[in-house]
Amino acid sequence: MIENGVYGYKSETPNAQVPPGYPLFMAAVYKLAGYTEHDPYPSIRYAQAVMSLATIAIAAYIANRLGGPIAALATSAAMAVYPPFIWANGAILTETLAAFLLLAYLALQLGALNKLTPGASMLAGAALGLAMLARSEFAVLLPCSYFLLWLIIKDTRSTAKLLLCAGLGTALALSPWVLRNVVTLHKPIIASTQVNPFAAGTYPNKNYDDGLVDRHGKTQMEVAKERLRIGFTQHTGTYVKWYTVGKLRAIYGRMFFGSGHSPMYLDFPFRQPFHVAIVLGGLALRRAAASQTSQLRMASRRLSGHDLGDAPGFRARVQIQLYGDADPHRAGRAAGRRAGRLGAEARSRRQRRGPREGGRRV
């Protein structure tokens, strides 16, 4: 790509087998490091170490908003010494960049759910688009975020408007890549054409030599679909177990260390007990946060009952505002200001519609 200007994964001709985020990051570091005279890999690892520190800072910010300073400190401490995060800094893989962009999106999305403004939603959507250029599977987070919002505020029109703005932001971030694919490959490819992760997930317990399907002369997608069809019809119990508890155990039951790199770094001592301790600690913090959430919900009810009981969707908006800030007093003041604005908007709408007469508007 640097020398010939051709973006193709394991090919000298253009393709879209993998999204361009990490290759573009590598290309930038290659150029800055002077790859013709110096090995660029150390520079990539240094850049990823700095990016990892920024990721910890963003995670601490999110934790502070949701759980307060103690949660932020615990999050920072756990991430700073968590072996997979340390290992990923030295790996020439998408993990570090993807984690940074994902946490940046989550921070902006949290702000968008608090502000409920088109601009904030569009900015969060653009951040998600950049994250998708590193790992396309993040796309599912956009509809999930606004479905959660709809469950809280029960306002279909407002939710749809914000989702549309977020989708527009995502589309703008992805547009250069999509246009490149249309012009070069004559296809509107949004993310990538690879299906390897999806296909790999169809092998229960990662047994890649089970011989369930003849792979000769078939694409990965064809093999994956055939494996799912045969697996769920002829080996139902095995596949149901794998796609429920099996994958959860494989993903979260132990730490991820990839395939390692050279020179191999020494393993973190007691890494599996440390991993279990972090998981259990997170559950304990979640339990403690539930108590604080109930107190914030009670505060939101008081605000909605005394300040603006007739504003449409106000109670839900106050709840979102409070949940997004670990300081109830500061959140309450912010919610009060927003309540006043929403109340003025509600009164203005009623005045425009005119007075009621006999239960009907005139």
TrEMBL record:
Q: Does the keyword Transcription regulation apply?
A: no
Question: Which Pfam families does the entry mention?
Answer: PMT_2
Q: Where is the composition biased (Basic residues)?
A: 331-340
**What broad class of enzyme is this?**
transferase
Q: Which UniProt keywords apply?
A: Cell membrane, Glycosyltransferase, Membrane, Transferase, Transmembrane, Transmembrane helix
Q: Give this protein's Gene Ontology molecular function annotations.
A: pentosyltransferase activity
Name a GO CC annotation attached to this entry.
Answer: plasma membrane
- Tell me the Gene Ontology biological-process terms attached to this UniProt entry: lipopolysaccharide biosynthetic process
EC identifiers of the protein: 2.4.-.-
Q: Which stretches of sequence are listed as region Disordered?
A: 328-362
Give the bilayer topology. Multi-pass membrane protein
Record-annotated Glycosyltransferase RgtA/B/C/D-like domain positions: 18-177
- Transmembrane regions: 46-64, 85-108, 128-153, 160-179
Specify the signal sequence span. Answer: none
Where does it primarily localize? membrane
Q: Which domain of life is it from?
A: Bacteria
**Location relative to the cell:** Cell membrane
Q: Where is the composition biased (Basic and acidic residues)?
A: 344-362
Q: What is this protein called?
A: Glycosyltransferase family 39 protein
* Organism placement in taxonomy: Bacteria, Bacillati, Bacillota, Bacilli, Bacillales
